[in-house]
């Protein structure tokens, strides 16, 4: 959760759009601690505060202005992701005859080309971290560059249950940025379906402070719902 929260560090007054349980908890933790200027919504037309109280109105036209101007930071999931950050949430297998039908592209193309997008993947495996995605939903660095649409395209980080990753490798390829405590580089490599850029020294992901732990356990997720998504 803390690694997800860190995705919004230093973002300033941008619209946080977390999709899913752990990203939502992470955004709330970030706003309560090191990113107090984050804007949060109720998912419809209102800006809300830390406890869900209404802080303002966010009409759809203004929402779209923020989306297309890089003033929103989304954290999505991924059924597949490759070394350049191309993401698939649409189907598994050949597009004409997929073996699995998933969500569809949804807003992933617009999200990735118009505002920063990070990813949360609770089960790091070679089925998710693949050499080539079966269909591009979210646009990666290689395809954005080829299409000449890089002005607002940025993929700050990928967080999994094994570590944190960025795209500071060669040609904006995925790089191991930090290991979660207790995880080894070998474990990450074995669970990744492509050659991952790994620096000479890999730090461990920052652990939460005592106050951050209190907020997580007593304020943000007192029912321990996070444990249903992340294996021990």
TrEMBL record:
It comes from the Bacteria. Coiled coil: none annotated. Belongs to the 3-oxoacid CoA-transferase subunit B family. The lineage of its organism: Bacteria, Bacillati, Actinomycetota, Actinomycetes, Kitasatosporales. It holds the Pfam family CoA_trans. PANTHER family: ACETATE COA-TRANSFERASE YDIF, CHOLESTEROL RING-CLEAVING HYDROLASE IPDB SUBUNIT. GO terms for molecular function: CoA-transferase activity. Keywords: Transferase. It comes from Streptomyces roseus. This is CoA-transferase.
